[in-house]
Automatic annotation (TrEMBL):
Gene3D superfamilies given in the database record: 3.40.50.12370, HUPs
Family of this protein: Belongs to the universal stress protein A family.
Superkingdom per UniProt: Archaea
InterPro entries: Rossmann-like_a/b/a_fold, Universal_stress_UspA, UspA
Residue intervals of the UspA domain: 32-132, 150-276
Protein name: UspA domain-containing protein
Pfam families on file: Usp
Transmembrane segments annotated in the record for this chain: none
Length: 281
């Protein structure tokens, strides 16, 4: 399995790359090759006064490469220019990646409304599963918020086709997962099941599959706003990562947050893994 690790050479990126437990978890799920991707924004130029971008970049990438190689991964580095999320997606497609990993310090009051960060742009455009690795905010030398990426998973499902696709990720996550909580949120605005269907029974079916893999599993049905209830479940169960499917978006949502998955990326305390729709379907 090939993984993309997107880095902007910030402290948040460094925390993701240099976390021994994060790398260990990637190895457990079958990642063998990691591609470091650094995107230079089009408005940044090497000749800008007072900043030696090239030297700083090479030093950082050499350090990251050494850390990853010491963890027994094959490593390639890509330095490209352009719009970060577009170039990251392009490289993911070109190398046949199965996962993109990006560090993010999480929410701020402004970020709760307007899409701006690379992590959130990737959340609505990614072509492969995206792991947003949450990093401490406000620390000079930040660390990852929750280690052992896949040890305790919170899987949120509306029983849609894309939610089923997200659940299939357990076929490889199971090698690093010990506990899982399966959550469905009932809402009168957008009924996810046919009339008379039993969400608890559907969750129990999914739980049986995970228990066959010796994953300790619980289920819960909530009522209310999906994003609010999923985040409440995160507080209650303290998973290391929330796993959710992303459904794709209208042109309006390219400007303002609207989907449950994007809301979770913006507001979750811990890591979030998004699985996009199958583009070939």
């Amino acid at each position: 399995m090939i993984a993309i690790c997107a880095t902007d050479l910030s402290a948040a990126s460094e925390a993701t790359i240099e976390s021994e437990t994060c790398l260990e978890c990637l190895g457990r799920i079958g990642v063998e090759e990691i591609h470091l991707v650094t995107v230079i924004p089009s408005n940044v130029h090497a000749g800008m006064p007072g900043i030696d971008f090239a030297a700083r970049r090479e030093q950082a990438l050499d350090r990251y490469r050494s850390v990853i190689e010491d963890a027994d991964f094959d490593v390639e580095a890509h330095v490209v220019r352009g719009t970060p999320h577009r170039r990251i997606n392009g490289i993911a497609e070109a190398v046949g990646a199965s996962l993109t990993v990006i560090g993010s310090r999480g929410k701020s009051p402004l970020e709760n409304r307007v899409i701006g960060s690379t992590a959130r742009n990737l959340a609505r455009t990614t072509i492969v599963p995206l792991l947003v690795n949450r990093i401490e905010r406000g620390a000079d030398e930040p660390a990852v918020v929750r280690e052992h990426l896949f040890r305790r998973m919170l899987f949120a499902t509306d029983f849609s086709e894309n939610a089923e696709r997200a659940f299939e990720a357990f076929s490889y996550l199971r090698h690093a997962t010990q506990e899982a909580t399966l959550v469905h949120v009932e809402t009168p605005k957008d009924p996810a099941l046919p009339e008379g269907a039993d969400p608890e029974a559907r969750l129990a079916e999914l739980a049986t599959k995970l228990e066959d893999w010796e994953i300790e599993t619980r289920t819960a049905v909530h009522q209310g706003d999906p994003a609010d209830e999923i985040l409440a479940a995160e507080v209650e169960y303290e998973p290391t990562t929330i796993l959710v499917g992303s459904r794709g978006h209208s042109r309006l949502r390219r400007l303002l947050l609207g989907s449950v998955s994007e809301d979770i990326v913006a507001r979750a305390d811990g890591n979030v893994m998004l699985v996009p729709p199958d583009r070939t379907a």
